[in-house]
Design brief:
heterodimer; A: 108 residues; mainly beta; six-stranded mixed beta sheet; five-stranded antiparallel beta sheet; globular; B: 115 residues; seven-stranded mixed beta sheet; four-stranded antiparallel beta sheet
């Protein structure tokens, strides 16, 4: 089992809709979780981090964490074409361990 | 805060040559990480430093790879006798561990092409 798993996509969402990205992790002791956005040919850019169970909102982005289910998600409201990118989920246990990323395409 | 800086941004080298990448972390960040990323994959951990001490090395880091962080400031990653499989983007990241937030910031990456 991979340490961090994501659906590789591609995930296509109409402009203005909600994009939902999911991630599961294997280490039950993990404490902090991160979402990075990566445009093609660029380096990862931090979007959000979450430590506690529940929801954390930042603008159009909401991160959700369920430690009992070992599940992290990222919701993007009012999706824009500029949100088209690969979204990387990462778990921080002394170092970041990444999933393979989900490629998101927002359709105008 | 000028961000994490990496140099060179792009490097094309012939198989068998040695290459060195440099990373300048965000000022006063005590942790520095190296990752490698190939197309369609997430970044893979290579090694990290706490100040000048190298705390962990991935098994991906064969004996052809070496990393240093003298004086706990900038870091270098050297690849000796490059192979075509070394072609990838090499990412450096830094973190102010213990400073709150445990947020890791990436540089723009160094692209390596081995021909």
């Amino acid at each position: 089992q991979k340490e961090v798993e994501q659906n590789s996509g591609p995930l296509s969402v109409p402009e203005g809709a909600i994009a939902s990205l999911n991630c599961t992790y294997s280490d039950r002791g993990s404490q902090s979780f991160f979402w990075y956005r990566q445009y093609s040919g660029k380096s990862p850019e931090l979007i959000m981090f979450i430590y506690s169970n529940g929801d954390k909102e930042d603008g159009r982005f909401t991160a959700q964490l369920n430690k009992a289910s070992q599940y992290v998600s990222l919701l993007i409201r009012d999706s824009q074409p500029s949100d088209s990118a690969t979204y990387l989920c990462a778990v921080n246990n002394e170092k970041l361990t990444f999933g393979t990323g989900t490629r998101l395409t927002i359709i105008p | 805060d000028t961000g994490v800086s990496q140099d060179p941004r792009h490097k094309i080298t012939k198989r068998g040559q040695n290459v060195t990448f440099r990373c300048d972390p965000i000022s006063e960040h005590n942790r520095l990480y190296w990752y490698r990323q190939t197309l369609g994959q997430g970044p893979e951990f290579l090694t990290y430093f706490q100040n000048e001490a190298q705390l962990e090395k991935s098994r991906l880091l064969s004996d052809r790879f070496s990393a240093e962080r003298p004086k706990g400031s900038f870091s270098t990653l050297e690849i000796q006798r490059t192979e075509q499989g070394d072609s990838a983007m090499y990412l450096c990241a830094s973190e102010d561990r213990g400073g709150g937030g445990n947020t890791i910031y990436f540089g723009e990456g160094s692209w390596l092409t081995v021909v």
